[in-house]
Amino acid sequence: MKSVRCLLMGSAAGLMAVSAAQAADLPVKAAPVEYVKVCSLYGAGFWYVPGTDTCMKIGAWLRVEATEMEGDGGIPLGAAGTQTGAGKFTRTDTSDLGFRYRALMTFDVRTQTDYGTLRSYMDVGTQGTSTGVWPNAPLSGGNTTTAEGGLNTQYNNNNVDATRAFIQFAGFTLGRMRSFFDINSVGAYSLSNTRLTGDSSPTGIWGAGYTAQFGGGISLSLSVEDGGVASPARSRLTGNVSQAAFGAGAFGGGQTLDNGGNNFFDPVMGLRIDQSWGYASVTGAFHNDNGGYYNNAINSTNAGLANTIVQGHPGDTWGYAMGTGFLLTDFMGLKGDTFGSQFIYGKGATTYVTKGSGTWAMRNGSFIGGGSTLDGIYADGTQIDQSTEWSWAAEYEHFWTPKLHTAVQGGYVSINYDQTATNLICAGAPGFGPMNNSLGTSIASTVGQPLTFTNGWAPGSACHPSFSWYQVGTRTIWNPHPDLDIGVEVLYTGLNTANRGATVNTAAATGAVPAGQYTFANQGVLSSVIRIQRNFLP
User: Fold this and answer.
1) CA distances for 405 relative to 192, 253, 484, angstroms
2) Cβ-proximal residues to 313 (8 Å cutoff; 6+ apart), any chain
3) Is 264 buried (19+), middle (13-18) or exposed (0-12) by CB count in 10 A?
4) Which sign does the torsion angle of CA 87, 91, 92, 97 carry?
5) Separation in Å, CA 193 to CA 37, 62, 73
6) Cβ–Cβ contacts within 10 Å for residue 343, how many?
7) DSSP label of 424
8) What gap in Å lies between CA 423 and CA 405, rounded to an integer?
9) Domains in the chain, please, with CATH?
10) Is there a contact between 155 and 103 (Cβ–Cβ < 8 Å)?
């Protein structure tokens, strides 16, 4: 019996040993998979990053569009930004038809902390835009095989770039953001790149700010922001009229600047109230204006040392801008409808008032209009004389149905130079710069009549560099699917010139427009856009 018991115990031990050996060869059971969970703290599209308490949302949108009488990303031809040739409106100088694609991916990452939400946000995008200038000129080396109206694949001066890249924590915002000066975005009501306000939404701006919440929807934001180095939305626009033509001619050849370097960020303030009816805001900013060195005309003993430290320079001065505006939601009790308006006034702070900085030039037959925007004007030996500018804009959007909505937007911008600046600018008129006053018989024969001009101006003419413009447009968007926008817009841009009389423009002979006599008059451009955009958690 004892032998049997030993045999059974030995057999059981052997079986257990074999079982253990076989179990060692079996695959180890995997740990439970940690599935991605929905994060409902911040709205649709957020999910928890596995293994963390951080929520993330990845979004994107892709836009394709065709434009008529617009170039360089939706800017009406002749408006600032369309650059050389825009004022000529000929078949060899401008391209009426334009195209653009733009694609953007967004990354929004948020985590709750003892100090509130820690958020980082950025987007990465690229675009291709056909230019409004029809490039008939030969390439370097005499190569004339370039495709006319070629595609410009730059987006904020880089093929791949970010319009936003900021961190928010404990009330602070740092990085590339929307300016705290901005109130309403007219771009939300338009498909074109309008020139009515200085809103920084499309490109962003570098800055660092703090927002204090006082309850009841009232907040105060203070920031320091880039005043014109790395942010396309803000520029320092100072010109020396002793050194370069103001606006580079009546037909617009680009704006020549003579700035000093960036000395300090622009201080910005915004006071805002948010309620169920919408919001209202009052904002202000200071803007540093400075110039480069004087030309050597002020010190002839230092010939060849133009724009050097031995010539001296004008003293720095500060401009400013003030704005106020509002936006009403569910306007007049209509679900989804919005109505907004804003007014901005500036002195020496043009790009806070409008995105339309640069040279404007439009032509209709023998009639021309134009202007140039600068924060300040100076000449060799003088101090900076600042311009004054103001803008007003209003916008309204109505939802006919949840899938069909129409917006109407418009406004007015005025750029003004005082008598001191006018005298400096007009000293070299016409074209607001030095020119050869010897008109010659060739121009006389082109015009077909004798020419008796003083400094290129017809008798009775008057030089006034101040000018203004207005824009009014309407766009309609259909959403056959919540993620798909199909839209069309018509926009009119009117340019008002303060110049009076007529001038002879010899520079016009370089394009398809002949040299000769041109009469100053108000001008206008009617443009349109068709856009299709696919959105995914934008």
Assistant:
1) 17, 39, 13
2) 260, 290, 291, 292, 293, 294
3) exposed
4) positive
5) 40, 17, 7
6) 17
7) H
8) 49
9) 35-536 (2.40.160.10)
10) no
Six-digit token string for 336: 């989804």
Measured distance CA(45)–CA(478) in Å, rounded: 23
DSSP label of 49 = P
d(Cα 352, Cα 390) in Å, to the nearest integer?
9
Residue 7: CB atoms within 10 A of its CB come to 10
Residue type, 374: L
pLDDT in tens, 162-210: 889 999 999 999 999 999 999 999 889 999 999 999 999 988 999 999 9
Burial of 241 (0-12, 13-18, 19+ CB in 10 A): buried
pLDDT in tens, 517-535: 788 899 999 999 999 999 9
Cα 103 to Cα 160: distance, rounded to the nearest angstrom: 10
* Beta-bridge partners for 56: 47, 109
Report the distance separating Cα 100 and Cα 97, nearest Å.
Answer: 11
User: In the numeric block, which tokens belong to residue 132?
Assistant: 């409004």
Whole-model pTM?
A: 0.84
Looking at the DSSP bridge assignments, the partners of residue 161 are: 125
